[in-house]
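Margin note: ligand = zinc ion.
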Amino acid sequence: MLIGLDIGGTKIEGVIVSPDNSEVIERLRVDTPKTHYADFLSAVRSVIDSLMEKTLASSVGIGCCGSINRTTGKMQGANILYLNGEDFLGDLRSYYNLPVALTNDANCLAISEFKSGAAKDAQDSCLAVIIGTGCGGGIVIHGNIVDGQHGLGGEIGHNPLPGYRVDTDGPTTQCYCGSHNCNELFVSGTGFERTWALKHPKLSAKEIFNRYANKDKDAVEHVEYYADCLARILGAIVNVIDPEVIVLGGGVSNQQAIYPLVEDKLKNYTFSKNVDTPVRQALHGDSSGVLGAAYLPVMKGMVN
Ligand SMILES: [Zn+2]
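Resulting structure:
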């Protein structure tokens, strides 16, 4: 059996997953401690220990914000701030005589969808993109997740928007990461509302999509524009890794209208115009974090 944990700012969720059919056999949640790493570590251990009492586990996978600095082995870029600078993975490995691995939520999405979700028919590769509050991505190639040398594999949210032009995409805008015109500023849910507000009175993404459904001219134009931005971003990735399937997760991915638009526009931005890469909605929803985490050690070849 596989143990997977999804660690967020408010809760730590752990599951036991059957590797045969991805069935979640046990599920457990505790609150994420607010201030101290020591409390956090014991909360994580309590979840793992409780799950291990119920099954013979072969590995533990962790989905968590941030990444591990390959030089120091310590956490970086986590929005659970006390985690940064801690040897979280090393500490867990010192407690458990099992393979333990850690990656971020976008990679967990890619893994869970590749193993048993919207990309399960893919033999070798998929790209998963979260279009929620922010924009992140994960890449599976040759059946393994691509972490990369600096833990940045798949982080497409902070590339500059391909084909950016002031007249079509609005004035140059700085992202919180320090770069300008990042993809996230255009295709996250927040970005969808931001670019709408450049031309119209502010509205929520939900309201804009409601107007789109009612064929409001401005909303139709905006959703077309949004799909075009997404196609530009995905087209640039297709030209590099050419994945078998592209999976979208996060809030905006629930909008069915975007899929045919993005699939249709994708070939405008790829080297070959015959590209027919399917763009699909993620299947696992909120469970992608725990499922992807559970499968992480399997993907990395740490367990069979
Ligand atoms: Zn950025």
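The first strand starts at residue 2 and ends at 7.
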